[in-house]
Write a structure and sequence with these properties.
Blueprint: E1 9-10, H1 16-23, H2 35-40, E2 48-52, E3 55-60, E4 68-70, H3 78-91, E5 98-101, H4 102-112, E6 117-121, E7 128-131, H5 132-137, H6 144-156, E8 159-163, H7 166-183, H8 190-202, E9 210-216, E10 219-230, E11 235-243, H9 250-262, E12 268-270, H10 278-285, E13 291-292, E14 295-300
Helix pairs in contact: 7-8
């Protein structure tokens, strides 16, 4: 799509080197800053991108919701790019909605555009970041229940942890498809989740991801996929995780084993947001995050 402001492009595998070059410019903690995230969710969230004045702008619109522009790294000439973003929103006849990340970006925008924007913290999109060693060792009384679930799993089942290979991707696909079939009448965005999982599995060898799985008597019962988010900050991100809850403790042991076997050399793990879902929020808080990332939605302070 060409506008007078931007050349907006879809996300393809050919774009990976371009997008990776932006994500590697800084010290970022948010799960949005990976090609994998953009690529596997591009269809459900209509994700596109444009380059402007040394900045990467990510465009998205979920369903019938509002269009938003994610400023991502803000490594270029922000003072030149933001007016183009405002012009773009004018062209599509929508009030501007700009997303930024972290307090440093917020202060920079306030300095460059004093009194222009209203800043709302996007609590539902905040990523949960944990100390990796805590999720591996589950120390102290607050992790007592987690340890019990894992110990029960180990006592009930003859299990193995295995790194994901292209051959095992087929079993991951089957496990998730079976869950989708049982939940198709109760989970509203199940088609979107299925698209994301299948896209990741279809492109497993083309993405910078690693996966792990748990098998019981050679049956795959859980899987997880992640990648390095920021080498300098020693942080990884978990993109997808799924388990067959018919096997007691399958989620806790998948979480623990994947980090122990694959990511123990990294200090932090980002397990993404809770999307405002109370059950998911409760589950994420039960692992006691070290911190939540700051994300903001910017709207015009004085719209015309």
């Amino acid at each position: 799509m060409h506008t007078t402001s931007f050349e907006i492009k879809p996300v393809t595998l050919d774009d990976k080197p371009i997008l990776d070059s932006y994500f590697k410019q800084g010290e970022f903690l948010n799960s949005e800053f990976t090609f994998t995230n953009m690529f596997i969710w591009q269809k459900p969230y209509n994700i596109r991108y444009a380059q402007s004045d040394g900045n990467l702008c990510i465009f998205s619109r979920h369903g019938n919701g509002l269009e938003s522009v994610n400023m991502t790294t803000m490594q270029g000439d922000v003072s030149a790019t933001v007016p183009k973003i405002l012009e773009y929103f004018s062209q599509i006849n929508q009030a501007p909605q700009i997303r930024i990340f972290g307090k440093d970006q917020k202060e920079r925008m306030k300095e460059l555009f004093p009194d222009m924007f209203r800043y709302e913290k996007d609590i539902n999109s905040a990523d949960y970041v944990y100390k990796t060693e805590n999720l591996i060792n589950l120390p102290g009384s607050r992790y007592h229940a987690k340890r019990n679930h894992i110990n029960k799993f180990k006592s009930l089942y003859d299990f193995s942890y295995k790194p994901i290979t292209p051959e095992l991707c087929k079993d991951c696909r089957t496990l998730f498809a079976q869950w989708c079939e049982t939940k198709k009448d109760t989970v509203s965005n199940i088609d979107e989740q299925l698209y994301a999982v299948n896209t990741l599995l279809d492109n497993f060898e083309n993405l910078d991801i690693k996966g792990g799985c748990i098998t019981v008597d050679n049956q795959l019962v859980a899987f997880s996929f992640g990648e390095v988010l920021c080498q300098k900050e020693s942080i990884v991100v978990i993109h997808l995780e799924h388990a067959d809850t018919n096997f007691h403790g399958s989620f806790p042991i998948m979480n623990q084993q994947f980090l122990e076997n694959q990511w123990s050399d990294y200090h932090f793990v980002n397990r993404e947001e809770d999307m405002g879902l109370e059950g998911l929020r409760k589950a994420k808080k039960s692992y006691y995050p070290a911190f939540l990332t700051d994300k903001y939605i910017l709207t015009l302070a004085n719209p015309k």
